[in-house]
Design brief:
The protein has one domain: Alpha-Beta Complex (Sufe protein. Chain: A). The protein contains six helices and three strands; from the N terminus they run H-H-E-E-E-H-H-H-H. It has helices spanning 3-14, 18-26, 78-91, 96-100, 104-111, 119-138, and strands spanning 38-43, 49-58, 65-75. A three-stranded antiparallel sheet has the order 1-2-3.
């Protein structure tokens, strides 16, 4: 069994959905962004750390601020990576106001569920997004 197959098997046994496993393996939206509109690093009480980068632009037709690109980095666990991937996929193309309304349960639902012990990772993603958007609005 190759290394990727072992990881997939372990994630399945841990209770991750097929979508979460795909996000983890493909590293969806993982990376840095040069000159982001917003950027924030947050470490949760459990010690997991997430960093979110957002590129936000005004829509030519509506004047609304829209998230055009989103990337993240995480440290420590698969739950943080899958939640970060889900959240960044969810917010692309959304107005800032829409992104602010996303809740932890929305991230979990998007993934098709997460192991109970990793629910806090959806909270980590949501909190990091909140702080990044607050930082953006303060500019």
């Amino acid at each position: 069994m190759d290394e990727i197959s072992k990881i997939i098997d372990l994630l399945k046994k841990s209770g991750y959905s097929a979508k979460a496993i795909e996000y983890y393996i493909k590293k969806v939206n993982v990376g840095e962004m040069e000159e982001p509109s917003a950027h924030f690093v947050y470490t949760s009480p459990c010690g997991d750390t997430m960093e979110i980068y957002l590129r936000i632009e005004k829509d030519k037709h509506t004047g609304s601020e829209v998230i055009k690109e989103a990337k993240f980095q995480a440290i420590r666990c698969a739950g943080a990576f899958t939640s970060g991937s889900a959240l960044t996929e969810m917010i692309k193309g959304k107005k800032v106001e829409q992104a602010e309304k996303i809740e932890e349960d929305d991230v979990i639902d998007w993934l098709g569920g997460v192991p109970v012990q990793k629910v806090h990772c959806a909270c980590l993603a949501k909190r990091t997004l909140e702080f990044a958007l607050d930082e953006y609005k303060e500019r």
